[in-house]
Amino acid sequence: MADFFDQLNDILFLDIETASLTEKFEELPERIQDEWLKKERLIQSPDHLHDPGALYFDRAGIHAEFGQVVCVGVGYFQWKKKDKKLAFRSKCYSHEDERELLLEFKALLEKKKWILCAHNGKEFDFPYLCRRMLINGVALPEPLQISGKKPWEVRHLDTMELWKFGDYKHYTRLELLASVFGIPSSKDDLDGSQVNTTFHLDKDVEKIKKYCLRDVEVTARVYMAMHPQSDDLEIEIIHLYDSKKDHKD
C-alpha cells in the first residue's frame, strides 16, 4: 500500500474544456475557413448534408486546429499517513488569452516529474494540449514531450485505456464508469456538448471551470476505484477555483 500512495502523490489528474476558435465561422481567417470546409466534408454524414460552415459551431471545438483551450482543470492527492486520509487538491487554470493559460499550465508541469492522467487523455487531452501549445508558440514541457521516448518512458495514464484491460473497445464514457462505481456525476448542470454555447454565447467561464473541476475529481475517483486499497479510506476534497493561487506539492 505504501508504494501505491507514494506513486499516487506524483499523479496529476487533468481535464480540459475546449471551444471553437471563434463564435462564428465567418470570423475565421480565410485560409482556416477553407480548411474547415474540407474537414466538414469528411465528418458530415452523406445522408445529412449541411450548408458550408454549418457544423463549425458544434464540431470545431474538438479539433485542435479549429478550437481553443478554455480551461485546464488539475488535481492531485496528498496522503496523510497519520490520519489515514487522502486529500485531493484541485484547481482550474483559465485566461482570456489562451497562450497565457497554456504558459501557466506549462509552469505547473515543470514543477516536478509528474505522471499525467486523464480519461481518454492519450487520444484527446494530451495531443490537444500539445497542438495548441505549438500553435501558440509555447515549447512543450517535458511531461508532454513524447518524441523520441520509448513507450515505458512516457508518463501518461489514461483511465479509459486502463478500463480496456487489453480489449479493443473504442470508447467508454467517464460518466459510465462513474455510474458503475457509484461515483457522483459531474454532469449535473452542464455537459461537454454545452461548453461551446456556455463559452461563446453565455460568456459563463466560471460555470465551465466548475464543471471541469468536477470532471477532474471524477477521473481521480475512477482511478482510485480501479486500485481499491481500503473500504473506509476517506478522501477530503479541496477545490481551489482561483488559478492564481500557488500550487504547493
TrEMBL record:
Q: Which residues form the Predicted 3'-5' exonuclease PolB-like domain?
A: 82-234
Q: Transmembrane stretches, by residue range?
A: none
UniProt cross-references to SUPFAM superfamilies, sorted A to Z: Ribonuclease H-like
One Pfam entry for this protein is: DNA_pol_B_exo2
Q: What is the protein name given in its UniProt record? A: Predicted 3'-5' exonuclease PolB-like domain-containing protein
High-level lineage: Bacteria, Pseudomonadati, Bacteroidota, Cytophagia, Cytophagales
